[in-house]
Amino acid sequence: MLLFIIFVVPLLVVGSFFWAIFLLNQNSGFLAWLIMFGGFYKVEPNQSAVLSLFGRYVGTNRRPGLHFNNPFFSKKKISLRVRNFESSSMKVNDLNGSPIEIAAIVVWEVTDSAEAVFNVDDYESFVQIQSEAAIRAMASTHSWRHTGCDETLVG
Predict the structure, then answer these.
(1) Cα distance from N-terminal residue to C-terminal residue, the chain
(2) How far is the C-alpha of 141 from the C-alpha of 76, rounded, in Å?
(3) What CA–CA distance (Å, rounded) separates 94 from 146?
(4) In 3D, which of 67, 76, 74 has the Cα closest to residue 110?
(5) pLDDT tens, position by position, for the chain (155 residues)?
(6) pTM
(7) Which of 70, 48, 74 shows the shortest CA–CA distance to 61?
């Protein structure tokens, strides 16, 4: 019964308007049905859909399932899964100016889908570039050798 209310009732409400158009003019009614079915979209688990209308942000849908919205909304799907990548090995100078080779494994996830879509062109490469810049900055502010004792990390 709940499935009937969730799926069929909205179709009947929305469909009654398009059925009236169909009865008035069969060609435009068929076109109206095609436009209406363009409003359906599916959101998978750990995914979100960013909705926009002619480039203006309208909202974000994070609930998994089949949804209906304005057929003219553009829907951009973004994965919310935790991802990781291994940075390339980089040669940088530490705090004392000693050259060291450093790499890192970065674990990240998208927390704000709208910012990932609208604030950067390619958020995956953005995370990679920013992570490598942060690794370089961190390595240059720390010393590889301990300065206050006789022990060192190097041989």
Answers:
(1) 72
(2) 40
(3) 12
(4) 76
(5) 554 445 555 655 556 666 555 555 555 566 666 667 777 888 889 999 998 888 888 888 899 888 888 888 888 998 999 999 888 888 988 888 888 888 889 999 998 888 888 888 888 899 899 999 998 888 888 777 766 555 444 44
(6) 0.64
(7) 48
